[in-house]
Amino acid sequence: MAEKAIICKDLSKQFGSFYAVNKISFEVEKGEIFGFLGANGAGKTTAMRMLCGLSYPSSGEASVAGFDVYKQQESIKKHIGYMSQKFSLYENLNVLENIEFFGGVYGVSRGEIRERSRSLVQTLGLESQAKKMVGELPLGWKQKLAFSVAIFHRPRVVFLDEPTGGVDPVTRRQFWDMIYEAAASGITVFVTTHYMDEAEYCNRISVMVDGKIEALDSPGNLKQHFSAASMDEVFYKLARGARRSAD
Ligand SMILES: Nc1ncnc2c1ncn2[C@@H]1O[C@H](COP(=O)(O)OP(=O)(O)OP(=O)(O)O)[C@@H](O)[C@H]1O
């Protein structure tokens, strides 16, 4: 049996009588790229916070990297990486300082940080920018660096919350090359996005509507099942009945 990176069974989160996440169930394989889609307000962030060990579920079961979301939140935090468009790097630290800081937070040894940060800066083509404040870098570079930092400690699972918001399609494509590389090295990727071209790059996709998972399959199978030419069309067919919207 393939190793499961994430297991979720009837996972729910209630705020009062409102079910932000309503009995979602799915499993993600090790090294899989799993797209977590849903319209604004569908419950993605709430679900992701529970899986990252940042909030307790109201009911149901889940484990991430083999750790239980109720009893082993600290272990989960140590074995995952997290990146979002909103929270990522310190703008007033330079490239190397950011790598050192986050590497240190995640427990990578000083020697290893020194060694690997040099090769990372090289791989990213940022040698001449290594001492530049991150705030001065173009957005696309910031995001590539943020992703590299999120997986610097070689986590088992990396959670990406709309990681490519606001960047052009070419940069997004480069970003996805990095995602593929990470997945090939065994890191499981859990990613939310509003870009349907990115959804096509995922191995499997789940689509959340009003707190529930309404569909879950590979992009190819979903298109076939919904007689749709694109993921855009699949998403529209599923999400058009949603009652919730952005706050
Ligand atoms: N702390 C809270 N108290 C009450 N309601 C909440 C709370 N957090 C989220 N919600 C509600 O739960 C629902 C799901 O929100 P969530 O942020 O998880 O959606 P989302 O799919 O991530 O949306 P977006 O794409 O806009 O980030 C929304 O209706 C939101 O208002």
What does it look like?
This protein has one domain: 3-Layer(aba) Sandwich (Rossmann fold). Strands 6-7-8-3-9-10 form a six-stranded mixed β-sheet, sandwiched between helices. It has a four-stranded antiparallel β-sheet with strand order 2-1-4-5, with helices on one face. Helix 3 (95-105) packs across helix 4 (110-123) and helix 5 packs parallel to helix 6. The chain has 247 residues and is of the alpha/beta class. Helices cover 36% and strands 26% of the residues. The model has no long low-confidence stretch (mean pLDDT 92). The longest helix has 16 residues, at 169-184. Bound molecules: adenosine-5'-triphosphate. Adenosine-5'-triphosphate binds at residues 15, 20, 38, 40-46, 244, 246-247. Residues 15, 20, 38, 40-46, 244, 246-247 line the site of adenosine-5'-triphosphate (ATP).
Question: How would you summarize this macromolecular structure in one to three sentences?
Answer:
This protein is of the alpha/beta class.
